[in-house]
Design a protein that fits this description.
By secondary structure, the chain is α/β, with parallel strands linked by helices. The protein is about 45% helix and about 10% strand.
Length: about 350
């Protein structure tokens, strides 16, 4: 075949046979020339593109308001903000239990007052010190102290499950360390776990460092058991002073006391326990009972009557996170009672 046969009017079949897929030796030279020319064209186009791109980037960078820089900065800020806005503590025990809404840390109030009534007022202004909840809503919160107890805690959990009730358990640290499986059962059933110090000591008689140790070691034990660090704190005996509230504020805790109790730890009798609780119940009541610290068989026996009677009166049982959620955003700061509970020794 002569060279003039490779003209402009070459057929598609000839093009495929002699250019794209050559079968004859002399076609290789022509194919190489075409490839070289094609690469040269691509190189020229690429150079022009890069020149335009660098020119455009340079002008944006010099102006300080380029879309690339803003896009990267905005994306970086969004990710950082999203992470820091929803902090979650990683479980220390390998558990995959989801973090409750009340497990995120709260920043301390700064500056924090030095007088007791001022501290209470500052904490109550942010719903972080409670004797009771919203008195306009027919809801009550069951709370249990001094557990977990290897015998009575499970009985309390069984009654709560029977009536579909969730409660808040203020646990003692050394009990948590000894019976972590019970705390896991409480948490797995949808209950909230609170901090009741390591050894149920009267915190008002301790130094600041010792108070912090009592609280932090308990929170560590709870977090190791369930993977969540508590944010609700109840001082033993309900006794507080400026030092106690200062340390609780420093740790970002919400201090919970109570306004409805039966002194069931004195084992006054099943009917006395239930009648005392029902007599003091009202909107927003925080009910104090015990699942640890001694023989709690009377408390367990009185619990069904307490639950059914309050339900018949139209009350709804809620956990403390829900009760705090239902409080006014800016509550009055002078609602603390004038008397404090008297410390009473608890036998373990």
């Amino acid at each position: 075949m002569k060279s003039r046969e490779f003209g402009v009017l070459m057929s598609r079949q000839d093009y495929e046979n002699y250019v794209l897929f050559p079968r004859r030796p002399y076609v290789g030279t022509r194919r190489s020339a075409i490839i070289i020319a094609f690469c040269a064209i691509l190189g020229l186009v690429g150079s022009l593109t890069l020149s335009v791109a660098f020119s455009s980037t340079g002008s944006r960078a010099s102006s300080g308001s380029g879309s690339s820089t803003i896009s990267y900065t905005t994306t970086q800020w969004t990710l950082t903000h999203a992470i820091t806005a929803t902090p979650q503590r990683q479980p220390t025990s390998g558990t995959t239990t989801p973090v409750l809404s009340n497990s995120s840390s709260t920043s301390p109030i700064t500056p924090f007052p030095t007088l007791l009534w001022q501290e209470i007022a500052a904490l109550q202004a942010q719903n972080r010190f409670l004797y009771y909840g919203n008195q306009s809503i027919p809801e009550v919160a069951l709370t249990f102290d001094d557990g977990p107890n290897p015998y009575y805690t499970q009985q309390v959990l069984a009654v709560l499950q029977q009536y579909g009730i969730k409660a808040t358990f203020f646990c003692i640290g050394r009990q948590v360390a000894q019976y972590p499986s019970l705390v896991k059962q409480e948490y797995a059933a949808g209950n909230v776990i609170g901090n009741h110090t390591w050894s149920h000591a009267n915190l008002t008689q301790l130094s600041s460092d010792t108070i912090l140790t009592q609280i932090n070691t308990t929170s560590d034990a709870i977090q190791q058991a369930i993977g969540v660090r508590p944010t609700f704190f109840r001082p033993p005996y309900g006794v507080i002073n400026t030092n106690v509230l200062t340390q609780a504020n420093q740790l970002g805790l919400t201090t919970i006391v109570w306004n409805d109790e039966a002194r069931d730890w004195t084992t006054p009798g099943i009917s006395v326990i239930s009648s005392r609780i029902l007599g003091l119940a009202g909107n927003g009541a925080i009910i104090l009972l015990h699942d640890g610290g001694g023989n709690r068989s009377q408390t367990v026996a009185a619990l069904p009557t307490i639950i059914t009677s309050l339900q018949q009166q139209g009350y709804t049982f809620v956990t403390l996170p829900q009760m705090v959620h239902d409080l006014p955003q800016h509550p009055a700061s002078n609602i603390a009672p004038t008397s404090m509970s008297i410390p009473t020794s608890v036998v373990y």
